[in-house]
């Protein structure tokens, strides 16, 4: 979890490989309308996100029922969103890739071919609710090496099992 540009996809793919689990890029499940809204520079509101969150919860349920588990790269900015995910499957665990705004701005501005424009980074920080002590997970500095982050997350997940 984390704001745009925090490295969710990169770290998520590395972590999924280490844990030998399926990987889902949550952005792939956004509707065309949601993508267009963001591409036009308008942040999604909770109503826009509702069907997306429910489809992600379905993926979590399926991954849990299969016994295989999975790794999902998703902003999961608000506690309410994470609660939807936790209700969807036992053992949901979060890796918060915490990143300072300047680095996020620079990373997002340097991307090509992504629907999320740099001007929406501020709205993500406005929505961001860091993990609370009662939420299972780990917060790391997203400016660190992605391989090192994935290694630390894999150790934490394996310890939790």
UniProtKB/TrEMBL annotation:
Family the UniProt entry places it in: Belongs to the gluconokinase GntK/GntV family.
Keyword Kinase: yes
Protein's name in the database: Gluconokinase
Catalytic activity: D-gluconate + ATP = 6-phospho-D-gluconate + ADP + H(+)
Pfam families membership: AAA_33
EC number: 2.7.1.12
Pathway named in the protein's UniProt entry: Carbohydrate acid metabolism
Keyword NADP: no
Top-level EC class: transferase
Keywords of this entry: ATP-binding, Kinase, Nucleotide-binding, Transferase
């Amino acid at each position: 979890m984390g704001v745009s540009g925090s490295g969710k996809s990169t770290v998520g793919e590395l972590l999924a490989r280490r844990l030998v689990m399926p990987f889902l890029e949550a952005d792939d499940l956004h509707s065309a309308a949601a993508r267009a809204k963001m591409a036009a520079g308008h942040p999604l509101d909770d109503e826009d996100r509702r069907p997306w969150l429910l489809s992600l919860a379905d993926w979590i349920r399926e991954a849990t029922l299969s016994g295989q588990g999975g790794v999902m790269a998703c902003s999961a900015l608000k506690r309410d969103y994470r609660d939807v995910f936790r209700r969807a499957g036992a053992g949901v665990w979060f890796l918060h890739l915490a990143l300072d705004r300047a680095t996020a701005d620079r990373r997002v501005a340097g991307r090509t071919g992504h629907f999320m424009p740099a001007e929406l980074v501020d709205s993500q920080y406005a929505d961001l609710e860091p993990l609370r002590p009662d939420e299972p997970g780990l917060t790391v500095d997203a400016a660190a090496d992605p391989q090192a982050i994935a290694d630390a997350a894999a150790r934490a997940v394996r310890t939790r099992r």
